[in-house]
Amino acid sequence: MLYLLLTLHLLGVVVWVGGMFFAHMALRPAAAEVLEPPQRLPLMKRTLDGFFPWVWVAIALILASGYGILLGILGAGAGIYVHVMHTFALIMVGVFSFIYFLPYRRMGRALQGGDLPEAGAQLAKIRRLIGVNLLLGLVTTIVGAAKPF
């Protein structure tokens, strides 16, 4: 059971953190270099439209498997590193929820209304917050792999 939970946990992490890394470090800079805002903003919105449902699936996998490991297997024997990962994961879920329910939706409304400056401002907020979550995700991955505490 432990290996199944760990596999599900890692799959969720790969999808979420890997997707953020790709979007933040490769897609966004390439789109900014090649496309003007009237083309770039709809591309980024459509990309997020496809990615964000997978993030919700990843969150469900990560939390369900993480709690399964913590409560069902490790219990009181969980190291501090597990609690650090748990805390970072909850912060990441909060940041993603904020992105999803505020700037992402505002960006969509602005695009529908033809307000490119507002859509761009919301995308800039999304970019910064995804950068925060990417950093937290990478640190959490290091903590999980290194078990430093």
Quickly give the structural class: mainly alpha
Number of strands: 0
- Give the number of domains: 1
**Mean pLDDT over all positions:** 96
Helix content: over 70%
Task: Determine Rg (CA atoms, Å).
Answer: 17 Å
Distinct helical segment count: 5
Sheet bearing the most strands, described?
Answer: none
Percent of sequence in beta strands: under 5%
The best one-word shape is elongated
Outline of this structure?
This is Membrane protein. With 149 residues, the protein is an all-alpha fold.
Structural commentary:
It holds the Pfam family CopD. InterPro entries: Cu-R_CopD_dom. The chain has helices at 2-34, 37-74, 80-101, 103-112, 116-146. It is mostly helical. The model has no long low-confidence stretch (mean pLDDT 96). The relative contact order is 0.14. It has one domain (2-146). Helix 1 packs antiparallel against helix 2, helix 2 (37-74) runs antiparallel to helix 4 and helix 4 packs antiparallel against helix 5. The two termini are 25 Å apart. The protein contains 5 helices and no strands. The longest helix has 38 residues, at 37-74. The chain is elongated.
Main attributes?
mainly alpha, single chain, 149 residues
Provide the fold topology.
Blueprint lengths: L1 H33 L2 H38 L5 H22 L1 H10 L3 H31 L3
